[in-house]
């Protein structure tokens, strides 16, 4: 098991959280907390870079949904970038690929 790390930075489009390691029931609350702490101003986007994510269980997916719902309620957006193939496949099978904005790069157009 790889420990979960979340590194925060800023992009012109909004905050960027780089998530690495294993996202599971023991640490999914850390992702939710980091997303809330990122403070995304209305009209901007929180970008989650999942390129170094090693594993994601159902608790991790639930955390992603909770983050998205929190941001939508606040009038902001969420983009998932560099989603590992295994997680992309799970999102597709569950229909969540239609809910999340999935992109290859965190270089988003600015408004």
Category from helices, strands and their pairing: alpha/beta
The sequence of SSEs as H and E is EEHEHEHE
Please identify the top-level CATH class: Alpha Beta
Please, how many helices? Answer: 3
Percent range of helical residues: 25-40%
Nearest-integer average pLDDT: 93
- Number of distinct beta strands: 5
Q: What gyration radius follows from the Cα positions, in whole Å?
A: 13 Å
Describe it for me?
- The chain is an alpha/beta fold and 111 residues long.
- The chain has one domain (5-103): STAS domain (Transcription Regulator spoIIAA).
- It contains three helices and five strands, in the order E-E-H-E-H-E-H-E.
- The protein has helices spanning 28-37, 58-73, 85-93, and strands at 5-11, 14-23, 45-56, 77-81, 101-103.
- Strands 1-2-3-4-5 form a five-stranded mixed β-sheet, with helices on one face.
- Strand 4 (77-81), helix 3 (85-93) and strand 5 form a beta-alpha-beta unit.
- The termini are far apart.
- The mean pLDDT is 93.
Layout of helices and strands, plus pairs?
Elements: E1 5-11, E2 14-23, H1 28-37, E3 45-56, H2 58-73, E4 77-81, H3 85-93, E5 101-103
Parallel strand pairs: 2-3, 3-4, 4-5
Antiparallel strand pairs: 1-2
InterPro entries: Anti-sigma_ant (IPR003658), MlaB-like_STAS (IPR058548), STAS_dom (IPR002645), STAS_dom_sf (IPR036513)
Protein name: Anti-sigma factor antagonist
Domain STAS: 16-111
């Amino acid at each position: 098991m790889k420990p979960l790390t979340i590194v925060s930075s800023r992009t012109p489009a909004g905050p960027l959280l780089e998530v690495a390691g294993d996202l599971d029931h023991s640490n999914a609350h850390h992702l939710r907390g980091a997303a809330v702490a990122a403070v995304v101003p209305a009209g901007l986007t929180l970008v989650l870079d999942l390129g170094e994510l090693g594993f994601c269980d159902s608790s991790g997916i639930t955390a992603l949904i909770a983050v998205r719902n929190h941001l939508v309620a606040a009038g902001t957006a969420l983009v998932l970038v560099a989603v590992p193939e295994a997680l992309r496949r799970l999102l597709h099978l569950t229909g969540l690929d239609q809910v999340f904005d999935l992109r290859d790069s965190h270089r988003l157009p600015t408004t």
